[in-house]
Amino acid sequence: MQALLTQAAEKARELFGYETLRPHQTKVLQQVFAGQDCIAILPTGSGKSLCYGLPAVVRPGLVLVISPLIALMRDQAWRFKQAGIPCDWLDSHRTAGEKDQVMTDLSQGITKILLISPERLARDDFREKLRSLPIQLIAVDEAHCISQWGGHFRPDYRLLGQYLAPLGPTQKLAVTATATSQVRQDIAEILLLQRPAQVAGEITRSNLKIKVISSKNIDSQYTALLQSVQSSKGCGIIYATTRKLVGEVHGMLRNAGIPSLPYHAGLLPDQRQYAQQEFIHGRIPIVVATNAFGLGIDKSDIRFVHHMGLPSSLEQYVQEIGRAGRDGGTASCGLFFNSRDYHVQKFMIDKSYPDVSHLKACLTLIRKSIQGPHGIDEDQALYAMRSQVNLPDRDLHQILDILYRESLLSRLRSSYGGSSSGYYAEQANNSVVIFEGSANESQVLRTYPDRKRNDLLKLDAMKTYAHASDLERPRLLRQYFSLDAPIRF
After folding, report:
1. Helices (H) and strands (E) in the chain, counts
2. Is pLDDT above 60 for 415?
3. How far is 69 from 76, CA to CA, in rounded Å?
4. Alpha-carbon span 183 to 481, nearest angstrom
5. Residue 116 parent element (H or E)
6. Cross-strand partners of 286
7. Less crowded by CB within 10 Å, the N or C end of the chain?
8. Is the CB of residue 334 less than 8 Å from the CB of residue 231?
């Protein structure tokens, strides 16, 4: 094992420019090279990808990486290729010819790292192909998506264990920036990990200078934020809790002569793509955004990440401030809030959980309308819902999104365009066809009320953190994430 660690450190220096491996990278690699399944909880920007990238160059066999986001897969593939590691990816946007070439390279042993989405594993023919490949390690990135309690929940992730089981006792590594003890337990159970080791770094990196500013009213909150931005150097992200607040903060900066661009899901795909590219390439210094912005944004020189308003959870907060200072330089992270913010977030949580009777009614209506294997057009489904359920269109669309999110229904878009910058593809479509989903209805509906209670508890923990003293906050974070708690077997 020591020989492999030495080789890994040499490759980190030769291929990635690391003077030395970071302590927690070394701890994770020790477990990997010892053949141990492992759950690694390391802060954003701590070099998690090297924990599965380096085994690909010092051990024989393929490293299979499961990732939730096309943009993230493409960026990682590009970076591994730039370092000279044969890496490729599969996603729905690649042409048939490109996919055939990927499979040919895999068969010939050319590719050392393959990045895929969990949905790719749902295909029987692809899983059968994997069985013929010498896979040395399966890495699950953003592993908190596995747990319905982990934020950014992806139902397809819950099927990974059964998808991967036919591959035999292949070593697995689950990596994420945030995971409570309950989430880690879910990760271990769903992935069928064999007595996994746990490696946990600090919740936030030491180069992040965190400040929390409580204001008596919204005007003083704006003033404090503006003063902080004006005193900051370099580029940054300002997160706001609502689309309306994004527009107001963007307008304040514009009036102060500070260039910025807005980003939220209500903008057209081209507008979001433009804002993202202008920011990544340094042509605009600030993006004001909802939490739709950030995952997969690989920009190492972000000098500040501020929050205008209380985030909905400590998981969200920690992940978002972790996007600052990834180059190791000092970065500031300001949380600007007032008492009203808590009630705004609570209202948004209440609105995001429609009454379960409405979910059942809409699900029943759509299922009755689905015509065999051909499904039903989404517009027809909405028409059926309008005729039977007395709710405004906005609520009906939200119910549909929840039924999709929970995999009680599935959808197929007939055409694609744009690119995704969130967990779910935000793609323009000419038509959406709805089919029966793969989830267990009784299980989903049984846990539905618990999900809302859990989100409210997370918001309460965020509120407690914001009101705590500077000395108390690190203790509260470690207590919340229970990093020292063992996994039960």
Report:
1. 18, 16
2. no
3. 11
4. 9
5. strand 113-116
6. 236
7. C
8. no
Distance of alpha carbon 355 from alpha carbon 362, whole angstroms: 11
Q: How far is CA 456 from the centre of its chain?
A: 20
**What is the C-alpha separation between 324 and 208, in angstroms, rounded?**
7
Using CA of residue 107, residue 111, residue 113, residue 114, what is the dihedral sign? negative
Element (H, E) at 434: strand 432-436
pLDDT in tens, 437-466: 877 888 888 888 888 999 999 999 999 999
Token pair for 232: 């900051």
DSSP letter (8 states) at residue 338: -
Residue 106 and residue 89: Cα distance in Å, rounded? Answer: 11
Phi-psi region of 374 (alpha: psi -120 to 50; beta: other; left: phi over 0): alpha
Give the whole-angstrom CA distance, residue 488 versus residue 480.
18
Angle (nearest 5°) at CA 407 between 403 and 409: 60
Please tell me the predicted confidence (pLDDT) of residue 99: 92
> In what order do the strands lie in the sheet containing 261-263?
208-214, 331-337, 302-308, 235-240, 286-289, 261-263
Q: Give the total residue count for the chain.
A: 489
The pLDDT value given to residue 68: 84
The H or E element containing residue 220 is helix 218-231
E strands along 141-264, which residues? 172-176, 197-200, 208-214, 235-240, 261-263
Question: Per-residue pLDDT tens for 106-138?
Answer: 999 999 999 998 888 888 889 999 999 999 999
Which residues fall within 8 angstroms of residue 377, CB to CB, at 6 or more apart?
A: 431, 432, 433, 434
Q: Within 10 A of 389 (CB to CB), how many other CB atoms are there?
A: 15
Task: Render pLDDT for 231-249 as a digit per residue (tens, 0 to 9).
Answer: 999 999 999 999 999 999 9
Token readout for 136 is: 């040395």
* Phi and psi at residue 256, to the nearest 5°: -90, 5
